[in-house]
Design a protein that fits this description.
There is one protein chain. 75% of the residues lie in helices and 0% in strands. The chain contains three helices and no strands.
């Protein structure tokens, strides 16, 4: 059995939630911009998805169950 790393899971879960929140907020902004006729740039998701993925990978690497880690 591998060693659990709860601090890594905590930081990974926080990064995951921040990335998820930023992605949702920026997705809403892109939808609004497209609906009003302005141009929306796809670079927004290039800035918000990496924290989400890195947080998910940190939780997976910590050997703590994902459901336990994100229930802060």
């Amino acid at each position: 059995m591998q060693k659990r790393r709860p601090m890594l899971a905590l930081f990974g879960a926080l990064l995951f939630w921040v990335g998820l929140a930023a992605t949702v907020i920026f997705a809403a902004a892109v939808i609004y911009l497209v609906a009003t006729g302005s141009s929306a740039d796809g670079i927004i998701f290039a800035l918000t998805l990496p924290p989400l993925v890195i947080g998910w990978l940190m939780v997976r690497r910590s050997n703590v169950p994902f459901g336990d880690a994100i229930n802060l």
